[in-house]
């Protein structure tokens, strides 16, 4: 079986199942205690936005999105993240086998992966794009804990152009409509600004997310790409979710790295959001 080995277990999150389960349980408990009752509880959840920093930094925010998986089941979960290490055009899919996690392997939905490759010329099978990439991997502990039977489709986006983001969105909407599927955009927000400046920049992104404004977010990112490292994946998921009937979007939590480190002079912003129909 083709297996993508965990690249940042033991550094970005605990490498043992016991310690990882403990960390996840703490984040999920705290998110439930801090947040109001889950919004749109009677609506169909179709997409999430979650950050991808080290678990101690962004896990408290990501948990606000992932706690919505409790009591829900999905056949397939499509995760779209940015490439931090490999430069390429289009998007790369891991089309077969599984991704390793300390909580067990997550199997690939090979039929959906093949359908995406067949239906979207900008998607290729480029294993090097996934080898070190943490933007997908940082979502997997939550998925392995809360949706262990779901198959996954991991996609890493290279150059985050309008053409790539929109083409991928249209393809994802087509394939996701055929299954009980969840879309996830993996993205951190602004990087290394003072906290007040970061919050202002990040608030602008949050407004586009809450209004399902993929076009507006793309235009903003074209002017100032530093707004979000995974802006392209967010645009793709917003556009696909809208095509799938998404009608309500909520930002569930916002924080920055300084909330953990105590250093507010240079922070990374984190947002959790969900979309329902």
CATH homology superfamily name: LigB-like
Residue share in helices?
Answer: 40-55%
User: Radius of gyration, rounded?
Assistant: 17 Å
Number of helices: 11
Largest sheet: 9 strands, mixed
Q: Compute the separation of the termini in Å.
A: 36 Å
* Beta fraction: 15-25%
CATH architecture: 3-Layer(aba) Sandwich
Number of domains: 1
Shape descriptor reads globular
Element order: H for helix, E for strand? EHEHEEEEHEHHHEHEEHHHEHE
CATH topology: Protocatechuate 4,5-dioxygenase, Chain B
Mean pLDDT: 96
Unreliable residue stretches: none
CATH class type? Alpha Beta
Number of strands: 12
Detailed description of the structure:
- This protein has one domain: LigB-like (Protocatechuate 4,5-dioxygenase, Chain B, 3-Layer(aba) Sandwich).
- The chain has eleven helices and twelve strands.
- By secondary structure, the chain is α/β, with parallel strands linked by helices.
- The mean pLDDT is 96.
- A hairpin with a 6-residue loop joins strand 5 and strand 6.
- The longest helix has 18 residues.
- It is globular.
- It is 41% helix and 21% strand.
